[in-house]
Specification:
Layout (H helix, E strand, L loop, with lengths): L3 E3 H6 L4 E7 L19 H6 L6 E6 L2 E14 L4 H15 L1 E4 L9 E5 L10 E13 L2 E9 L20 E5 L4 H13 L21 E12 L5 H11 L4 E5 L2 E5 L2 E6 L2 E12 L8 H9 L1 H19 L3 E5 L4 E4 L3 E11 L8 H8 L7 E2 L1 H11 L10 E6 L4 E5 L3 E6 L2 E10 L5 H18 L4
Parallel strand pairs: 1-4, 2-5
Antiparallel strand pairs: 2-8, 3-4, 3-11, 4-7, 6-7, 6-19, 7-8, 9-10, 10-18, 10-22, 11-12, 12-21, 13-14, 13-20, 14-17, 15-17, 16-17, 19-20, 21-22
Amino acid sequence: MTTTFSTSDICTAPPRLHVSSRFVDDVEPGPGFPFESGLPTSVEETLELLPTSAFSCWVRDTSGLIGFGRTLRIRARGSDRFTELSKAWKAITDAASIEDEVDLLGSGLMCFATVAYSGESEVDSLIHVPEFVLGRRGGRVWMTSIITEGATPVPPVLKSEPLRRVTSATSSPGDLDSSSWADLVAKVSQMLTPVGDSAEVDPFTEDSTLRKIVLARDELVTSDDDIDVRSVLGELNRSYPSCWTFDVAGLIGSTPELLIGVENARVTSRVLAGTYRVENDPTSEMPAARKLLSAHKDSTEHAFAIASLQRSLSSVADDVSVDERPHLLPLANVIHSASDASAHLPEDSCLNALDIAAAVHPTAAVGGYPQASAVAHVDELEPLDRGRYSGPVGWMDDRGNGQFGIALRCGQLEDRNRIRLFAGAGIMPDSDPLAEVAETEAKFAPMRRALGLE
Ligand SMILES: C=C(O[C@@H]1C=C(C(=O)O)C=C[C@H]1O)C(=O)O
């Protein structure tokens, strides 16, 4: 049974969770061995072991965390959604008893979380605590069980069921069709003030002149049969191994952008802004991408994204450093301009990964620049509720560690056979509306392909 709590329910009477993590890759098949037909050796084999719904996932290449069953769910809305969820999680972790023989990133008590982009959203932000977690990192495989005090643990025996590819999907426009969205892009680009060719972007300036706004659009995909989410995740993981493939509360996708990673007080982040659309093959198109992304529009857009992260990360962490020059990140559908950043949490910091995500969200990659003025305009100008698209999605543990991606290249399951896809683009004063439409089409492609549409 799934129980969804408000954050105040949790803070008033935190449930006592019993947590146990143990390796399962050195256990002989027999009583207590969780797999009916041997240890899974790939992400696809692991996905085949899952029930067709009610699971969560955060996987990159061959490492990651897959949760199934539900011990509890916590929801929050509004501008305090981050603080409330974080407080509730701290109450849970304080009350928990944990046995962790694994001691790897993601073992022990953990939760998945997905947070709405805007405080105005009518969509819940959620923490999801699974009953079981299968983890794989550094070639080791473990299982965690998380149960409420008094509940009887029922060790699972997982049976393999082949993934069912989606074959009958069709798509239709969401809140705005592509030509109305192009009109909106044209209107927004007129509202923006360009920076000069040689102007430096100062992260700490108080200048509130509006420079960049990110606009999103949606698309509805419906299938005759239920969507086998496991198959969608398998396709995404295979085609985008360098991205973080996720499913949290039906928000499914594969993001190239790590908002924040925290591991033992070290903070990392990957900032993307500037997009080249791949026509055929990313490798042979790298020179063309380099040329486009080093031109004024995209390089300024990238500078805004870095400045916004530097400013917000400096408010919670020390020694913030960012790559001196962006590098190209080639993916099957697009090539991005990317910069990696790192920082350290001060020794007396009691902030967890969700708190750090809250401090940096929304970056200029999904809101605009400067942050405050851009965000107010996004809420006002976009006809759609972004829900959890472009918000932080990921996981965290009881020690403050965790990883939150920006929920991009994704869709929200609205029913067993219906999913709403989202894609956005950074609008600059010199944006060409049709080129921005084409960019969003390229950003829809990973989900469309995984749903059998392209
Ligand atoms: C908003 C999205 O992507 C963001 C916008 C980018 C851009 O405008 O160049 C690039 C990567 C992301 O930071 C999206 O994928 O929906």
